[in-house]
Design goal:
The chain contains 5 helices and 2 strands, in the order H-H-E-H-H-E-H. The protein has helices at residues 25-39, 41-44, 56-63, 73-82, 98-114, and strands spanning 48-53, 86-91. The radius of gyration is 15 Å and the shape is globular.
Length: 116
């Protein structure tokens, strides 16, 4: 955020295991955001950053007040974790967000290569 040029510092990718595989898409999106921010919390804490996501529903849920999400406890719990960080959320169309798909494919290909 600001006038500095953007650059990719790190990335994180993984697989859903057990019950996570059955989560709804929105739960997976929010969990992925929480896991990534948690993974890089040492770099992100006390710094303002921009989170670009291609899921409008996740953006709306994360921008709501935790009090309004009591009935959806999983979202409130995730949002409470994220409240420790100073970030803005920007929606980008999926067609303009190819990096996550690329990273996922690379991760999966790497897994299949090591299993053969």
């Amino acid at each position: 955020i600001g006038s500095q040029p953007e650059h990719l510092v790190r990335f994180h990718s993984g697989l859903w295991h057990g019950p996570q595989q059955k989560y709804s898409t929105i739960k997976k999106e929010i969990l992925a955001i929480v896991l990534c921010i948690s993974k890089f919390q040492d770099d992100l804490f006390m710094k303002k950053f921009l989170l670009r996501i291609d899921c409008k529903s996740a953006k709306e849920i994360l921008q709501k007040d935790v009090q309004n999400l009591v009935s959806k406890q999983i979202f409130a719990r995730r949002q409470a974790i994220l409240s420790a960080f100073d970030f803005e959320i920007e929606f980008i169309k999926g067609e303009n967000n190819s990096l996550p798909d690329f990273l996922t494919r690379e991760f999966l290909q790497g897994k299949s290569d090591t299993n053969t």
